[in-house]
Structures are given as structure tokens and as C-alpha cells.
Amino acid sequence: MMKHLLSLVWLAAVAPFGAAEPQLSVGFAEADISPTLGKKPVYMAGFGSNRTATKIHDPILARAVVLSDGTKTLALVSVDLVGFFLPNVENIRKELKGIDHLIVSSTHNHEGPDTVGLWGASPFQSGVDAEYVKGIEATIAKIVGAADKSKVAAKAKIGTANAPELITDNRLPEVKHDELVAIRFEAATGGKLIGILIQWNCHPETLDDKNREITADFVGYTVSAVKKKHGCPVAYFTGTVGGLMTSLNVPLKNDRGVELKDGTFEKAEAFGNALAKVADKALTAAVDAKLVPFDLRVKTILVPVDNALYKLAKTVGVLNRPMFPWTGTTTPKDWKEAADVTKPVGVKTEVAYLKLGELDIAAIPGEIYPELVLGKVQDPPDPGADFPAAAVEPAIYAPLKGKFKMLLGLANDELGYFIPKRQWDAEKPFCYKLKSSQYGEVNSCGPDAAAAICNAFRALAEAPKK
What we know:
By secondary structure, the protein is of the alpha/beta class.
């Protein structure tokens, strides 16, 4: 009897250690990544060629959020850039220690420097300053390390709010992803606010194509407003921006009731402040969310590139990006670089499914259409579609069964638009009886890119946990 009692005492003593609950810890850090003006031209991204910067209106930043469940550590970084390629992210990963996975998501800022290559002095010249991009890599590695060191035990609350009035969809059919997600991180003991993460789905291009001052566009104003109100670090992440989700043509008025014009800092500020109010609404509605344990799944895939302009840009050096032979599979056995891009080729990228307790996150390497995220691909397709019999791609959100969900767009790459194949419309007759094609296809890898991304993500999300 005494032996039995001693065994129970021993089990009670060791059980808490062997079955300890995972503990969330979080750290934030940020740094200015604005380019230096004056020494050489700084080509601005997102619209036409040869738009050179004349001034830094407000800083563009890199913001890091590092999270751990005690076993795995995840770094999420947002940069106020038009895009950041996977090879650059891979360079950063080589410099990091103790980070199980890094995601660098660009806000897709159209008022910052060209970090992709498509907006140089001419269509045949890259706008990328390699030295500047190397500096960004070093800065990201630095702030990830700082955020990692600053981690403290935390608890989280998540809230959402819809704001369809703050998005225009400038491509038919109109499908908006208008949900903002806000995550509030508090110290596990005492409840002190550690930081806030905001995720929203919209092109930062309020300043339009004539602006020549470097700015984070509305993102900077949103972050500043939320930071001022709550007195803590704030990290903004872009989500679903294809389709096209944009701040242009969103009707906003000033305090005097005068309609604000696109291409003005007044409208960018008004839009940013309006979005900050939506974030506050989401934070007010936030509820407790368990964000541990972590399940981090990543898949490297090959996405077919049919875009003749992309291939030409690769040939003349505008796109400094390896391409690989395309044989019809997203998972080739050999990753030997293609010598001739006039033949079928693809580009290496990655998708990720991140399950943080009750939060499911899809990390998508480009600008995905809302239809593909929300399961709203047009059915039946318009008679003018180029591929009306194409299969509907699996929706990104369909396999996400967590209590909360979120999408990180332009995550670790920028491959342009992912368009539902049955909505591809580059040839006459055009959909919706339009006289010309809508914008989108010209900046997409091709009609089969969406299927490659969506199928790979579904396989990740539905795979049994190891």
C-alpha cells in the first residue's frame, strides 16, 4: 500500500514537467529601409518606367514579429516594398539562428523603390539597386534577431472587422476580400500590451502614378494612428490584393465635405486613418485566442511561366531570377536552371501553411484573387473566357478549420497575379462584352499558375500532422 502511494506521489510530481503546456512568447522590432537619395537614381515601383524618386516623404519600414511556442520559432516580417523575391529571403535565412521559419511579406507598396526589376529607366533596364537590396536583407536579419531577443511570454486576442467601403475592385466580376484581422498580444502576466498585428487586403497605391516621393502610402498612416492610440509596436501585413483590391477610387471626404483626390497625400492620410478605425473596431471585438502549439508546413514548388514578357525580361536581365525547365510537374526531381527560357519554364517558389493553435495562416507568394481565397470563382464562367471548361481551383480558405484564419500575400516572393483559369481573358471575345481585355494577365505567370499554388496549398493544409 505504501509503495503504491509513493508511486502516485512520484507521478504527481513529474507529470507537470512531462506534459507542460506550450507557452506563447512574442517579440517585435522594426527598422527604416528608406533608400538614400542623391547618389544615384532611385526608380519607383508599381506603375511605369523611369519614375525616379525626388524626396523621402515618410519612411518605409521593415517590421518583424517573432513568435515561439517553446519548441518552434516563427518570424513574420513585413516590408513596405512592392515585392521581395524568394532568393533574397533564402539569403536572410542563412544568417538567422534559432528561427525555424521566416516569412517576408511585402505590403506591395507602389510608392517605394523597385525591388523586382520591372520599373527601371526603360522597359529593358532593371530598376533594382543590388546594393540597396543587400542592405534590406541585412536589416531584416537584424530586426528578426532583435525581435527574437525581446520575446516575452504572451497571450493573444484576435478580432475581425469588415470594411467593403475601403476597397474598390477594379476588375469584373466584383469579389472583395474585405475582412481586416487584428491580433493583440499582451504579456502573459500583468496584461501589458506587447504589440499589435494588422492584416488587410488592399494595394497601397493611393498616391497613384505621378507621385515621386518615397512613402509607405496609407500603410504608414494606419500604423502611426494605431501605434499612437495604443502605445505599442504595430506590424501591418498585406493579404489578398489580386482581383484587383485597391485604394484608388475609394470615395473619401475631408472635414469640410470635399471629395479627396487620388494621387494626394491628403487622401492617403485619410484612407490610412479610416483603416486605423477599422482596426480599432476589430481590436474592440477581439476575443481570447490560443496560438499554441505551432504546426509549420512549407512546400517548395515550381510554378509554370507562360508570360512572354516575363521571359523576355529574364533574357535581357530585367528580371534577375532563375528559371527551371517545366515538364508538367510542380515538384521536379532536378532543379537545374534552364539554359533556354524560350522553352517551357517555371520559377521556384514556396507556399506555407502555418497553424498557430486556433489560428490558421495561408502564406501565398504573390497577388492572389479573392475568388481563389474565398471559393467564389465564377460559375458558370462568362462565355468570353479563354478557358471556360477549366477546373475550378481549390479555395485557399476551404481546408482551414481553425477558429481564426488569415492570409499573408506576397509571402517570400512576388510572382504577380494568381488568376482563376476560367476567368482568364486575354483573347477576343472579351468577358462581360467589354471592348478590350481587363488588367491582370499581363502581370501573371500564366493561366496555370493559380492551380499550381492552390493545389500545393491544399495538399499542405490537408496532410496529416507528423
